[in-house]
Amino acid sequence: MRTIDLRSDTVTLPTDEMIHAIVRAHEQHRFGDDVIGEDEVVIELQEKAARILGKEAALLVTSGTQGNLISMFTQTKRGDEVVIEERSHTFLFEGGAMASLGGLFPKPVRGIRGYITPEQLERVISPDDPHYAHTALISIENTHNYAGGVIVRPEQVDALAGVAHDHGLAVHCDGARLFNAAVALDIPASRLVRNTDSVMICLSKGLSAPIGSIIAGTEEFIHQARRIRKKMGGGMRQAGIIAAPGIIALEKMIDRLKEDHQNARLLYNRLSKVQGLKLEKPETNILFVELDNFNINARQFAHELKKYNILVYGEYGTRSRFVLNRMVSRDDTIRVAEAIEEILERFRM
Ligand SMILES: Cc1ncc(COP(=O)(O)O)c(C=O)c1O
């Protein structure tokens, strides 16, 4: 039985077209040393990404984590405070690097479905008083993973950025899944970051490129970010090998995210009929289910699913996460729903 992998959209393998793009760029002698700005493919990717995101310039980085950190470090100084959603990737899953590497002081705020409201932000910005760390930046995660792939709407971003800017804060968007939000709302991704100073997007999640993320902002931001990327060991040489699939990701893979959203909705529709199972209608490709009405926790649930060759992470307490992605078809989704129904029937309280 084929394995169905719902652990993350990072498990997506590169398409044939992506691999061919690497070979073609090699045959056309387009690779070069990107640290000295000589890889044509990287330059093409960065220009394309900047256009799509509506920013002056963009920079290829190794990962989403590195992109978030570089964006924050570029716009803050050591000892500054960063307002961050309590369940955001940057706060929970980046090894505490904003503090350990950047000397930044995180001020976590529990938002509403992943969104820190302008009123909440107003309340947590520190006064200009030497007792407090200087509040320098707010980071918005869009879509918000832990909240369940929830979209932060453009008006919400604008309202929050308005308050942030009034108080002199920079605004960063962790847009690891920004295109999921854009496709679901049927708006250009640039609209979602019109009022953010920086944005990070991942090429290697639903877009299926093997490696890489992009950060974008003003020319000046990217100029400074390039220095910090180098210090963090992120200056890459013939990085066109990464950029070539990245170009295909931006050209060909954005629209197909809709299929992942449809499959997430299909899974939701099936599972919402399971008595006792709590779940929220997914807005994009991530569905969480709450198992607290059953005699099973997420870790045991992951173990049970594995017997059906279905993979999920088991680390979310009594919540289990399903990330729909290109490697999971509609038929696979139905197989997953059936397996969950069978398992939960056995673990009823
Ligand atoms: C919301 C969010 N931001 C950032 C990242 C980090 O990306 P990477 O794994 O490429 O470092 C992830 C990865 O899953 C993510 O989900």
Helix content: 40-55%
**Helical segment count:** 14
Rg over CA atoms? 21 Å
CATH architecture annotation of the largest domain:
3-Layer(aba) Sandwich
Bound molecules: pyridoxal-5'-phosphate
First-last Cα distance: 30 Å
| CATH level 4 superfamily of the largest domain | Type I PLP-dependent aspartate aminotransferase-like (Major domain)
* Structural class determined from secondary elements: alpha/beta
What is the mean predicted local confidence, pLDDT? 97
Largest sheet: 7 strands, mixed
Q: How many DSSP-defined strands? A: 12
- What is the chains' assembly state? single chain
Enumerate the strands of the largest sheet in spatial order, edge to edge or round the barrel.
2-8-7-6-5-3-4
**Secondary-structure element pattern, one letter each:** EHHEHEHHEHEHEHHEEHHHEEHEEH
Question: Stretches where pLDDT falls below 50 for ≥5 residues?
Answer: none
How much strand? 15-25%
Look at the structure and give the CATH class of the largest domain: Alpha Beta
CATH-assigned fold name of the largest domain: Aspartate Aminotransferase, domain 2
Provide the number of structural domains.
2
